[in-house]
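Researcher: We're teaching a course module on how sequence relates to structure. For the next exercise, students receive a sequence and then see the predicted structure as tokens, so they can try to spot secondary structure elements on their own. Here is the exercise chain.
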Amino acid sequence: MKEQYKVTGMTCAACSSAVERAVSKVSGVSTVEVNLLDNSMKIDYDSTQTDSKAIINAVEKAGYHAALPNAKATQQSGDESASENPVDAMKKRLILSIVFLVPLMWISMGHMMGLPLPAFLSGTEGAIPFALSQFLLTLPIMYINRHYYQTGFKTLLHKNPNMDSLIAIGSLAAVAYGIFALYRMGWAMGIGDWDTVHKYHMDLYFESAGTILTLITFGKFLEARAKGKTGAAIQALLDLAPKTALVQKDGVETEIPVEQVAVDDIVVIKPGMRIPVDGVVIEGTSSVDESAITGESIPVQKNEGDKVIAATINKNGSFLFKAQRVGENTTLSQIIDLVKQAGAGKAPIAKLADKVSGIFVPAVIGIASVTFVIWLALGQPFEFALSRAIAVLVISCPCALGLATPVAIMVGTGRGAKFGILFHDAQALENAHHINTIVLDKTGTITQGKPFVTDIILEEGQDKETFLRAAAGLEQPSEHPLAEAIIEYAKLKNIQITPAKNFEAVSGKGILANWENQPWMAGNQRLMNEQNVDITAVEKVAEELSLQGKTPLYFAKAGKLAGIIAVADVVKPTSKEAISKLKEMGIDVWMLTGDNARTAQAIQKQLDIPHVKAEVLPQDKEEMVRQLQEQSKKVAMVGDGINDAPALVRADVGIAIGAGTDVAIESADVVLMKSDLWDVVTTIQLSKSVIRNIKENLFWAFFYNTVGIPLAAGVFWYGFHLALNPMFGAAAMSLSSVCVVSNALRLNWFKGTEKKTEQQQDETEVAVQFSTFVPNQKEEKSMEEKTMQVTTNKEEIVLTVEGMMCQHCVEHVTEAIQSVCGNADVSVNLEEKTASVVAQKDNETVAKLIDAIKEAGYSAELKNS
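Model: And here is the predicted structure for the students to work with:
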């Protein structure tokens, strides 16, 4: 059974280690992870052997408090109110401490800076009031910061000393010595021993205790404020969720709290509203800004049957949708849970810091004791030996060790969420930086995952729109995926589809039907041969299409070939660049697919993939990953389907494309919300940045303590006369934690390598190549030559087009040019804002092109050569 608890009273890595040790000893507990950053504890235990009560008791015996999230946590006596913001509480303590520290420092050290003191506090005669005033000003500072003593001595009694124990022992030792000096001076005055009075007059250490406590609180305040920023990503996600929803019941619209929305409720969405829950559109159409969830800035068109996601923003239309996932089951809630889970998890790299933290505080107390004894043995004054021991206690910082990993993990997972990259746990985030081999599933990962029209070859003189109407009319009764691609393309071009009559499906070959009182047929080469349709004019074109991994579909009218439509599962726009970048990063790329070898080789050639394996079964993918691992390779598997699940589980890091199946997402360590292969590159780069940041933090924490403790102990006193004042030691200890947290916050600046190719929002936006053929003539030219259709009296016209923003604009400009030049090949470049066409280059043609583009809503002019 897995549970998460809230643990209070922890202040440093030694605390978290103590809680882990205590809970791990409970019978039936298999794993326990304590996170210092958000004061949480995740455990996995056998409910037949123990229960939550036993676990809470184990935490309390270790000197801390624990409670389940839905229970009211036991409040430690003297702690700030649970409802009070930790930063505000620390700020209040700091201000009150400074109020008393300023006069304390004025009395104790003002004379060194030439500041005047009242007569009764000056000179040897005023030694007792001088010391007593400092003592009285130190007491409020100790009370304000009593938390250090309550927690420090409590954990010390439970044999689990922590950072608070070091502060409590160090500051209390300074105050105890000051009280001792106060009594010595009082006795010395009584007997007239002014030498003794003079000796202790300036060796009181009250100001050291007050300064240590105030500086530690100052450091804790800075640390709490910095740590608060680590959860900014989660808070930003929480702020996305709307508080209410507009629900339609019995034709009446009612606004209700979003928590009351139930599955199958009809939700009304108007322009500008945030979508409250996940669902499917049942009426209306609009564009939705999904950038908050997927990171993609271009709004997505939503029609009937399309899914909508909670927290996304409706733009300009209105629609109704049926709620499918509500409450904790929405995509947003699951994203928040994943980010919290990953941020609270413990990465393997943290184990070293945990081991050191477990023995750190006892070791420091031991070093301080040995330091005190050695300096006394070497003949140094008691005050010097005590000062060195106190400095050792207050400079030592287990906090920096404990914070080195969790703050970087939390900031890293939060940053990943902003990119649409979700890590299931901290281990996945760490493991990703080791990856040197990536196995990619083809369908849905490298490619779009469904067929699209890629090429249309028409009989010379054939009208394009009429041909598409006929093709769509023939295919409409068919349920074949390739038929769906043709129908979708026709709808995209706003072509009115007239259904064919007398439809007859020829198994494995195609279809026969009548369309607009004419006999038509559509299918593969075998059907054309059986029906005695001459296809010699396009044989070479069809062969080239097949070599490119495309499927040519022949269409014939009244026994004569009318044209070919090629259909293929096209490569995603960013796949080529992503694969190229992975190779540049030194990662070996493999592609596995269940498709035939010809299709696999076409994709391999197109994307320059080093290794490809075709015709593989689901178990073959898992076996392939295992074989690569046996070669000592760290393997990441990227997939989207149920058949990828075994391989995702087997891989060192399983990465699921967000548009994939629930099974694939559950089996993966990382989920990519945008279904963009480029995010695999970003995932690995983010992992490397996080691990580099953690190593920097650990280096600083170890280096600080390695140098600071010997300096405080006075190791460099002989020969260099270097020894650290306890007040400076307290300041250094406070800043060390602040430095670690601040360094981790730099991860908020992580951007990753920017891709040059933008992922297309609308997957139907595939650039379709048009060309023609001359009937009854053998094919001699290559498809590339035919597509260009260059003749002696034609040349390329290049126009500069302003106003294009997306692929829809590219389509509109292309159609405008083709309305002037017919089926001529048109090339529109969105990035360069240009459009080119091979046509008769004269003033009349150029003027017609510019006018047609203007009618489409854009401005154009002839580009200078």
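Model: If you want an answer key for the exercise: DSSP finds 32 helices and 30 strands in the chain. Residues 55 and 375 are 45 Å apart (CA to CA).
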